[in-house]
Amino acid sequence: MVFCGFLSLFISVVMPFLSSLAGLLGGLTLPVTFAYPWFVWIRVKKPERLSFNWGLGVLGTAFSLAFSLGWGLEHRQQWDEAQVLQAT
Fold first, then answer.
1. What is the distance between the alpha carbons of residues 67 and 52, in angstroms, rounded to a whole number?
2. Residue extents of the structural domains in the chain
3. Over the Cα atoms of the chain, what is R_g?
4. Which pTM does this prediction carry?
5. Distance between terminal CA atoms of the chain?
6. What is the pLDDT of residues 43-65, one digit of tens each?
7. Do the Cβ atoms of 23 and 71 come closer than 8 Å?
8. Are 28 and 68 contacting, i.e. CB atoms less than 8 angstroms apart?
9. Does residue 2 sit in helix, strand or coil?
Protein backbone atom coordinates (compact mmCIF):
# COMPACT_ATOMS: atom_id res chain seq x y z
CA MET A 1 0.00 0.00 0.00
CA VAL A 2 2.88 2.33 0.76
CA PHE A 3 4.44 1.52 -2.63
CA CYS A 4 1.18 2.41 -4.39
CA GLY A 5 1.11 5.70 -2.49
CA PHE A 6 4.67 6.51 -3.53
CA LEU A 7 3.92 5.52 -7.12
CA SER A 8 0.86 7.80 -7.17
CA LEU A 9 2.89 10.66 -5.73
CA PHE A 10 5.65 10.12 -8.29
CA ILE A 11 3.21 10.11 -11.20
CA SER A 12 1.44 13.24 -9.94
CA VAL A 13 4.73 15.12 -9.56
CA VAL A 14 6.22 13.98 -12.87
CA MET A 15 3.06 14.56 -14.91
CA PRO A 16 1.21 17.59 -13.49
CA PHE A 17 -0.95 17.87 -16.62
CA LEU A 18 -2.56 14.52 -15.82
CA SER A 19 -5.34 16.20 -13.81
CA SER A 20 -6.60 17.91 -16.96
CA LEU A 21 -6.90 14.51 -18.64
CA ALA A 22 -8.74 12.90 -15.72
CA GLY A 23 -12.16 13.22 -17.35
CA LEU A 24 -10.99 11.64 -20.58
CA LEU A 25 -9.12 8.82 -18.88
CA GLY A 26 -12.09 8.18 -16.60
CA GLY A 27 -14.47 8.07 -19.53
CA LEU A 28 -12.25 5.67 -21.43
CA THR A 29 -11.73 3.32 -18.48
CA LEU A 30 -15.33 3.43 -17.30
CA PRO A 31 -16.43 0.47 -19.46
CA VAL A 32 -14.11 -1.77 -17.44
CA THR A 33 -16.38 -1.12 -14.46
CA PHE A 34 -19.81 -0.54 -15.98
CA ALA A 35 -20.03 -2.42 -19.28
CA TYR A 36 -17.51 -5.22 -19.71
CA PRO A 37 -18.61 -7.35 -16.71
CA TRP A 38 -22.16 -7.43 -18.06
CA PHE A 39 -21.03 -8.40 -21.54
CA VAL A 40 -18.76 -11.13 -20.13
CA TRP A 41 -21.66 -12.47 -18.09
CA ILE A 42 -23.83 -12.47 -21.22
CA ARG A 43 -21.09 -14.29 -23.14
CA VAL A 44 -20.72 -16.96 -20.45
CA LYS A 45 -24.36 -17.50 -19.46
CA LYS A 46 -25.93 -16.86 -22.89
CA PRO A 47 -29.29 -15.51 -21.66
CA GLU A 48 -32.16 -14.67 -23.95
CA ARG A 49 -31.62 -11.79 -26.30
CA LEU A 50 -32.42 -8.26 -25.10
CA SER A 51 -32.64 -9.30 -21.47
CA PHE A 52 -32.04 -7.04 -18.46
CA ASN A 53 -28.28 -7.68 -18.58
CA TRP A 54 -28.10 -6.52 -22.19
CA GLY A 55 -29.69 -3.28 -21.07
CA LEU A 56 -27.17 -2.85 -18.26
CA GLY A 57 -24.25 -3.41 -20.64
CA VAL A 58 -25.59 -0.93 -23.15
CA LEU A 59 -26.31 1.57 -20.37
CA GLY A 60 -22.72 1.28 -19.09
CA THR A 61 -21.38 1.83 -22.60
CA ALA A 62 -23.66 4.84 -23.05
CA PHE A 63 -22.39 6.33 -19.76
CA SER A 64 -18.81 5.89 -20.93
CA LEU A 65 -19.48 7.59 -24.26
CA ALA A 66 -21.40 10.41 -22.60
CA PHE A 67 -18.59 11.10 -20.12
CA SER A 68 -15.94 11.09 -22.85
CA LEU A 69 -17.98 13.35 -25.11
CA GLY A 70 -18.79 15.66 -22.23
CA TRP A 71 -15.11 16.00 -21.37
CA GLY A 72 -14.27 16.74 -25.00
CA LEU A 73 -16.97 19.36 -25.35
CA GLU A 74 -15.94 20.99 -22.09
CA HIS A 75 -12.29 21.24 -23.12
CA ARG A 76 -13.00 22.21 -26.71
CA GLN A 77 -13.32 25.85 -25.75
CA GLN A 78 -9.93 25.74 -24.02
CA TRP A 79 -8.34 24.21 -27.13
CA ASP A 80 -9.91 26.89 -29.34
CA GLU A 81 -8.61 29.64 -27.04
CA ALA A 82 -5.13 28.11 -27.08
CA GLN A 83 -5.10 28.08 -30.90
CA VAL A 84 -6.18 31.70 -31.00
CA LEU A 85 -3.36 32.66 -28.65
CA GLN A 86 -0.82 30.75 -30.76
CA ALA A 87 -2.03 32.46 -33.95
CA THR A 88 -1.44 35.94 -32.52
1. 23
2. 20-87
3. 19
4. 0.53
5. 48
6. 888 878 777 878 877 887 888 88
7. yes
8. yes
9. helix
